[in-house]
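dude i think i finally got it to work??
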Amino acid sequence: MHDVEVIEEAAAAEVSLDPIRARMLAELAEPQTATTLAARLGLARQKVNYHVRLLEQHGLVELVEERRRGNMTERVVRASAAAYVISPAALAAVAPDPARSPDGLSARWLLALAARLVRETGALINGAARARKPLATFGLDAEVQFATPSDRAAFVGELTDALTGLISKYHTDTGRSHRVIIAVHPSITEDADPPAEEQQS
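look at this
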């Protein structure tokens, strides 16, 4: 079982988004039979079998073992991952494209960057898994509180200068390309609405 699996195909995304099947994937974090899963969900075993087969067809559920029970063979299955992310690749025709309106101060552009990050990282993860090779990545997560909007603007300016300097120092026309994304946005807490955009002073 993977920690996270990236769903790239539209059909698999559609299957996973069904409320019953989404609940099944959560329950199947631990291996179960259709009988035990049906009891936990309060559904008929035949209905559970139907949904499990659909999930299995799209690689979202995997067979763990088969057990003989008298004249029957009982299948034990589990989810293929502990968590799932649907890549924007599943909606390729309408996925956001950062190249359409590159505006570093636009929240929609930031969202398009995030979508591209999910799409590209997902493709890398799935490709590395198929090739059975490690994937070198790095992520940095931090939080900063700004006293004023002007402080935030100054921070963005200094960050841009520092990053531009680092890129100039290490960039070469040979070797493998790597994408660098740094995002700065207001934090959102569970008990608060997203903060409105302040006017810079």
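The longest strand covers residues 61-69.
im so relieved honestly
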